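Why does this matter for the project? Reviewers at the last site visit asked to see concrete outputs rather than summary tables. In response, this paragraph embeds two records directly. Each consists of the residue sequence and, immediately after it, the corresponding structure tokens. Nothing has been edited or filtered.
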Amino acid sequence: MASKNAPRIPEVTAHLISAGGKRLRPMLTLAAANMFGCTGDNHLKLAATVEFIHTATLLHDDVVDESLKRRGRPTANLLWDNKSSVLVGDYLFSRSFQLMVEVGSLKILDILANASATIAEGEVLQLTVSQNIKTDEETYLKVVRGKTAALFSAATQVGGQVAGASEEDCDALYEYGDALGIAFQIIDDLLDVEGNLQITGKNIGDDFRERKLTMPFIKAIQNSTKSELEFWKRTIEKGNQNDQDWDTALSLMNKYQAITKTRQEAEMWVEQAKRALSKLPESEMRILLSELADYVLTRSK
């Protein structure tokens, strides 16, 4: 991304782009827009807007989480510094709003502005609850709906909106994106406990070491005995961990079938996404979005 006034911006953004990624969110915008016969280039601007917002959140997340790797490569905050990551993230947010203004729709501006605020709320909520072993699945879903699903649902909804889809169809697109985003995050949590480092680029058990309560941990904790709860208090709430603790955590998740039950939750949300799709007109794009839901469930990175 060119910026003649601040060369650090294209340096950081080029690093992020070269790291790859699935580009699912802009794909949702384009698919939804094409489903309803969008013409012109406003849907392209919105797809870029959605990706800018997503990339900005990644830059900020890596600073908050003190992450050293993203997609198997060093994070921007490691290669440069936290200040650069935060400020380039801020720049991308600003550029996203410039693109929204170019599209010229107050409704679309409202959808994406609300999504941006909801993402921030989800991240802040996660900060306050992720190390409390009393956190339940309802609270976890509030976090996920905020930090992940909000952009999925907005990305899909604005695609329909810019193409002139009816309010009912835009609502169905929103429901699809919301359910898909929740399933996506649940699978992300599963990949942290049973994924392949060579494929995901992430160390297995990072969420445990970073004391982030995700669905597999919550399901295990809900069924734990008094002595097992003491283990979770020590490792998650107090952060007192040793080299053997990850194996113990994994053993407890297996004992209570937490991983299997978490996958079943993801399957349920994918089915919910497909039910939302069934409300939309039959088309090649609807088939593509259904296949995308299946991909989210079976992805390995």
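We now turn to the second protein, recorded in exactly the same manner.
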Amino acid sequence: MKIGKDLVAAAATPMVLGILADGESYGYAILQRVSELSDGELEWSDGMLYPLLHRLERLGHVEATWGASPAGRPRKHYRLSTDGEAAFAEQRKQWSVVSAALQQVWADRDGGRSPFALGGAPA
């Protein structure tokens, strides 16, 4: 299934903040985690991730430091700042509202039996 660009873009910030809420990470590992979390359905590119990380850094939500990789090559590591933790908490609240509204719409359409309300996939 191809996930539309609008939905991918809308989910990008909370997804990255959530991944970094679990601990410091670097670009390639974030890309791998997104793919893993979505069972391969979300395939982000460097061209999408790095501008987002730089924007989050400019906003003060993410802090970056350089470190060495196992191969010895420098690698930029990202972690949530205190402001980033607050932004992540706010994003979670907002997405909970959106998710609940969508589940209600789907439940109404399906006569009260939304597959998402039951933890499944959409029909």
